[in-house]
Amino acid sequence: MKSNLKLILLGISSTLLFAQCSPQKTEETTEVVVAEEVKTPTLTKIWETDTTLTTNESVLYDAESGKIYVSNIEGDPRGKDGKGSISIIDKDGKVVNQNWVTGLNAPKGMGITNGNLYVTDIDQLIEVNLESGKISNKYKVEGAGFLNDLATSNGKVYFTDMNTGKVHLLDGGKISTVTEGHESINGIAIAENGSLYMLDKSGLKMLNEDGTSTNLNKTVTGGDGLVILGDGNYVASRWAGEIYFVNSDGGETLLLDTKDAESNTADIGFIPGDNIVLVPTFFKNKVVAYKLDY
Fold first, then answer.
1. What residue ranges define each of the domains in the chain, with the CATH number in brackets?
2. Where is the signal peptide (predicted)?
3. How far is CA 3 from CA 75, 231, 255, in A?
4. Helix (H, G, I), strand (E, B) or coil at 12
5. pTM for the full model?
């Protein structure tokens, strides 16, 4: 009996040992990683105006009226010849009023605030009443050499001087200097939170509260027009014939290159909602509209 019991216990122990040493069956799971598709930003041409907008430098869309204003140098960009003008076109590219404002010299950047349109003109800031189209004021800027782009925010007018590297401010009828030391500064834009962005020889920069600046992109050097899309992205042009999409990480995509066609891309405008980029072609004497997809 004892011998049989020993054999039984030995058999049970062997069975347990075999079970412990045998490989265990496990369930295998496979993790599927789906790569997010990255969309490449593009511009698609949708219309162009007639070639009557002589040496057009800047385009400005007014959301309230739906009008598009175009500044025409019509001569030397530095010449005080009285040939400059501002035209009005519609959202289909039709010239509505060729000579809305005349008698300017070399008008460039524009902005709207407080019922007025403001435009830079070499060494002056010109104020035009939107309702009448009449010049209501001229602000002489001491020491100015080449006033260029312009942006408005909360009743204030910011504008750049490409020669002196300064950003000026018109506030309450008085002109002051906001920041300086920005070589060949041109494009300027104000974000909804009041932050100031600019394009100069070093690229796309943001002005910090302490007066220093942070470089966001070093490719769009010597940029001309600047659009803040409001979602951390930007559209910036270079006068020679390039337009870039700059993303929130500072990376850029070349959207348009018209250098071979000798068609410039000066101070661009933008129609939000429709995502239409308005391109003044300078010596080609027309404005071209492109649909932005990103």
1. 42-293 (2.120.10.30)
2. 1-19
3. 120, 86, 92
4. helix
5. 0.87
